[in-house]
TrEMBL record:
UniProt-recorded name of the protein: Diguanylate cyclase (GGDEF) domain-containing protein
Organism of origin: Nocardioides terrae
UniProt domain EAL: residue ranges: 24-276
Tree of life domain: Bacteria
Length: 290
């Protein structure tokens, strides 16, 4: 909405941070050296199969602490985009994730999705496809899913489209992030090589208390199914929300604080190990429902 009023991302985060112009330039300087110095960290939020509760993947989320103070991703990602740093930041995150997955390998048996947020700007880089290939090569069988946000509308430029095709040919998969709250029409689902939609947390927010909200989310799920897309429901915070997804949840996946918060790599490895053990002992047990 800020964009629609002609207010750029920079102004938005300056406002959010209550910062002056000088402080903002300072922030960008610090961000630049943090990226160059490898100080951007990555945490992981498990994604579960709703029917079984089992971990089927994880989303990689960038983290940055500036002088010990965590800066919200919405702030530093916007800053990076506005300051022309997002391609470097994105490359760094992708390399870090690939290296992390390599160390996770021994904990993972069977299919696993690792999703990474990318900025549309990265799809304009000629070198991006090679970065994706290297990442996939290091990830040995873990599926790399690149999340593209539809918030600003999806870029349907032929260059971007051909880049998407090349990424998929290389073995990566594409997800539309923040689905259902952006400016795009849904017809691009037909035009793009998309495999997953991630229903924005806003769509799940009221499903436990509002029948229309529930009906809306369920039709998004049905649409995804009809189109043969994987669907991830974001922002599940309560048992009631999880229950409101209904009983017909085959293939449906979800993320949210109810199940797991984003965590550091070591915790993710331990969490996956516990998940595997619990399920080996009692495969019918659903840890969140009932
Ligand atoms: P996103 O990709 O939609 O990621 C989901 C956000 O929801 C994350 O916020 C996650 O921590 C949060 N979340 C997960 N479960 C719940 C829940 O149950 N309730 C609530 N209220 N929130 C939940 P986070 O980590 O602050 O990231 C914010 C956004 O920053 C991301 O939204 C994504 O758009 C962007 N982002 C993060 N890392 C990267 C990155 O490496 N590259 C790019 N381009 N963008 C990134
Ligand atoms: Mg995402
Ligand atoms: Mg999302
Ligand atoms: Mg989001």
């Amino acid at each position: 909405a800020a964009k629609a009023k002609g207010e750029g991302g920079v102004e938005k985060y300056v406002r959010a941070m209550g910062q002056s112009r000088l402080e903002r330039l300072d922030l960008i300087d610090d961000l630049r050296s943090a990226i160059a110095g490898g100080e951007i960290n990555v945490v992981y939020q498990p994604i579960i199969a709703v029917e079984t509760g089992r971990i089927v993947g994880a989303e990689a989320l960038a983290r940055w602490s500036r002088d010990g103070v965590p800066i919200p991703p919405d702030v530093f990602i916007t800053a990076a985009e506005d300051a022309g740093l997002i391609v470097d930041l994105g490359d760094h995150v992708l390399r870090r994730v690939a290296a992390d997955v390599a160390t996770l390998r021994s904990h993972i048996d069977g299919p696993f999705l690792m999703t990474v947020n990318i900025s549309a700007r990265q799809l304009r880089e000629a070198t991006f496809v090679d970065s994706v290939r290297s990442a996939i090569a290091a990830m040995h069988g873990v599926t790399l899913v690149l999340e593209i946000t539809e918030r600003q509308g999806i870029d349907l430029d032929p260059i971007v489209l051909s880049r998407m095709e090349a990424i998929c040919a290389a073995g990566a998969r594409l997800a539309v992030d923040d689905f259902g709250v952006g400016f795009s029409s849904i017809s691009y689902l037909h035009d793009l090589p998309v495999h997953y939609i991630k229903a924005d947390a806003a769509l799940a927010q009221d499903i436990a208390v509002d029948e229309r909200a529930r009906a809306l989310l369920r039709s998004v799920i049905a649409m995804g199914r009809t189109l043969g897309l994987g669907v991830v429901i974001e922002g599940i915070e309560s048992d009631d929300q999880l229950a409101a997804l209904g009983n017909d949840t085959g293939e449906l996946t979800a993320q949210g604080y109810l199940m797991y918060r984003p965590m550091v790599l070591d915790r993710l490895a331990a969490t996956i190990a516990v998940d595997r053990d619990v399920n080996a002992q009692a495969p019918q047990d659903h840890r969140w429902r009932g």
